[in-house]
Amino acid sequence: MKIIAVIPARYEASRFPAKLMQMLGEKTVITTTYQNVVETGLFDEVFVATDSEIIFDEIVQNGGNAVMTGQHETGSDRIAEAVQNIDCDIVINVQGDEPFLKLEPLQQLIEVFHNDDNQEISLASLKIKLTEKEEIENPNNVKVITDNNGFALYFSRSVIPFHREISYKVDYFKHIGVYAFRKHALIQFSKLEMKPLEISEKIECIRYLEYGMKIKLIETNFIGVGIDTPEDLEKARKLI
């Protein structure tokens, strides 16, 4: 299989505009993310897909690959435009604001498709267990519940599942926004209109569920820093 990685990058993020151009040490957030993905050595190609000339120039001037796209509501739609004429089988979507992604979780996502003999999986992604009440209740953390085979049942910014039976211990999982798509499923996704649940939650992978596609979730111990707020940026700077 030919496997590529694409990093969707939007300059005007609603919660933290220009966050991808903030400095982490001596590099910007987006350059740090790009270079870390390249250094895994897992991909035939890595490039940034953006509608911002500022981000495009940042990547190219630092020796990277970038492509300009139109404006899109979701990162997946942006990637679909970027890869439609590229010969590949699997597309890994790495969020531009996840600069500390490591080799192992990316390998886990790729392995899903090597083991999917019936090619029933449209999308694979990551989840990590949440233990702190504050993190579980934080709407910036997208929670996910799965069936016994690890396929997603639903994603929400609310606390799911609701813990009504307090005598029974329940686990909570955060969805980590790293996706691995079959290319044809990604292209199909981009042609489907948003449905009410996706619009309400503002979680793009709900669109797959609303149209009956299968999403495989892999549990990981990877702890990164997704940069959604200025406070997250300070955490990332301390980690650097």
From TrEMBL:
Instruction: Give the InterPro entries listed for this entry.
Output: Cytidylyl_trans (IPR003329), KdsB (IPR004528), Nucleotide-diphossugar_trans (IPR029044)
Task: Give the keywords, sorted.
Answer: Lipopolysaccharide biosynthesis, Nucleotidyltransferase, Transferase
Task: Supply the EC number(s).
Answer: 2.7.7.38
Q: Name one GO molecular function term.
A: 3-deoxy-manno-octulosonate cytidylyltransferase activity
What is a single Pfam family found in this protein's UniProt entry? CTP_transf_3
Q: Which NCBIfam families match?
A: kdsB, PRK05450.1-5, PRK13368.1
Q: What PANTHER family is this protein classified in?
A: 3-DEOXY-MANNO-OCTULOSONATE CYTIDYLYLTRANSFERASE, 3-DEOXY-MANNO-OCTULOSONATE CYTIDYLYLTRANSFERASE, MITOCHONDRIAL
Name under which the protein is recorded = 3-deoxy-manno-octulosonate cytidylyltransferase
Lineage of the source organism? Answer: Bacteria, Pseudomonadati, Bacteroidota, Flavobacteriia, Flavobacteriales
Q: Which gene encodes it?
A: kdsB
